[in-house]
């Protein structure tokens, strides 16, 4: 109980630190958001009125206190560029980003586990060299470079998948929730599910390939250590096949470190959605973040960064709990 309370307290302190850093950095960065909104012939009174409207007329400390009070009340402010509630805008775009990130994580885990098991089964043979070379290539190329390569390959040379968007506009009005892929699968909308999946293929691969290489390398190393343990050697003496040794005996004991690293890397994957969404014009939170930064939309940028920060913190907490659940010594310690 005490440990859980300490973790929650640390979450609050970390999130508060994020709010301070984001607020200060945005205020000291060059550029005036009011100047980008108002016409060249505006009077001083017009400029002052806009500053008062968006809370930019006071000192830095005064602005922070006003903003923090509103934030505690669930008010993220009004977007300067969209003229709408910032929290409502974030809530509209966040499900698309979460769906993209979760699917990419699933693909990364599937591919990473497959490569790790294949490399372990082919230990000290040409297959292991091939797996190590492939994971090295996947890890060396950043996600945005993969995105550009996929655009050229599957969008231009072999136009198999849509280059932009999330769904065909003719199908977009049939959804009741913002989680298009999940809803289409649950409700049996086959045509919509295929279209959403087709739009996801390239951005998901761009995000998943580097992460799957990390998963494969960490899990392969953990499997190599597990394969020389006494319980594996005893199972081998009893005649258990290599496939069962790896997948039944070694894998369940090697998955812990991989899970911990995957949780940490998932937070970086969320951050990587910003550039990947921009490349594919994917209507998620990352794409909107770039637009908000370009327009110096302070309330929207602050809200987006806070949401990303909260996602990072909650993800790390869930990973810690999952590791404790899988490890009896941590669960009962």
Question: Can you tag this structure with a few keywords?
Answer:
about 325 residues; mainly alpha; MetI-like fold; globular; cell membrane; transmembrane helix; transmembrane; ABC transporter permease; membrane
Write a brief caption for the model:
Helix content is 76%, strand content 0%.
* Helicity, as a percent range: over 70%
Beginning-to-end CA distance, first to last residue: 12 Å
The chain-level structural class is mainly alpha
- Catalogue the unreliable spans: none
Main beta sheet: strand number and arrangement? none
Along the chain, the helix and strand elements come as HHHHHHHHHHHHHH
- Output the CATH homologous superfamily of the largest domain: MetI-like
Q: What is the radius of gyration computed over CA atoms, rounded to a whole number of angstroms?
A: 24 Å
Number of strands: 0
Individual helix count: 14
Tell the overall outline: globular
Main location: membrane
Organism: Lichenifustis flavocetrariae
Family: Belongs to the binding-protein-dependent transport system permease family.
Subcellular location: Cell membrane
């Amino acid at each position: 109980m005490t440990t859980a309370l300490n973790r929650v307290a640390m979450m609050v302190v970390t999130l508060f630190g994020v709010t301070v850093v984001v607020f200060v950095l945005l205020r000291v960065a060059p550029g005036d958001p009011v100047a980008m909104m108002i016409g060249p012939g505006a009077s001083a009174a017009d400029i002052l009125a806009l500053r008062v409207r968006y809370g930019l007329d006071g000192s830095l400390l005064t602005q922070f206190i006003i903003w923090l009070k509103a934030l505690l009340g669930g008010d993220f402010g009004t977007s300067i560029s969209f003229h709408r509630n910032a929290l409502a805008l974030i809530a509209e775009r966040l499900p698309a980003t979460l769906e993209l990130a979760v699917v990419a994580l699933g693909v990364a885990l599937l591919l990473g586990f497959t490569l790790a098991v294949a490399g372990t089964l082919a230990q000290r043979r040409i297959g292991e060299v091939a797996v190590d070379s492939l994971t090295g290539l996947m890890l060396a190329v950043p996600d945005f470079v993969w995105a550009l390569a996929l655009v050229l390959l599957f969008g231009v040379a072999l136009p198999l998948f849509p280059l932009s968007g999330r769904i065909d506009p003719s199908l977009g009005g049939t959804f009741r929730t913002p989680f298009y892929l999940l809803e289409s699968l649950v409700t049996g909308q086959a045509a919509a599910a295929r279209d959403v999946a087709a739009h996801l293929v390239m951005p998901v691969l761009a995000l998943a390939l580097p992460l799957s290489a990390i998963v494969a390398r960490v899990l392969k190393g953990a499997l190599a250590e597990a394969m020389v343990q006494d319980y594996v050697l005893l199972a081998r003496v009893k005649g258990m096949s290599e496939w069962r040794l790896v997948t039944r005996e070694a894998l369940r004991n090697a998955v812990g470190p991989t899970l911990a690293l995957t949780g940490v890397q998932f937070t970086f994957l969320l951050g990587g959605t910003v550039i990947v969404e921009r490349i594919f014009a994917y209507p998620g939170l990352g794409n909107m973040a770039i637009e908000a930064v370009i327009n110096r939309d302070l309330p929207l940028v602050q809200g987006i960064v806070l949401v990303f920060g909260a996602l990072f913190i909650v993800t790390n907490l869930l990973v810690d709990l999952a590791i404790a659940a899988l490890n009896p010594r941590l669960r009962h310690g």
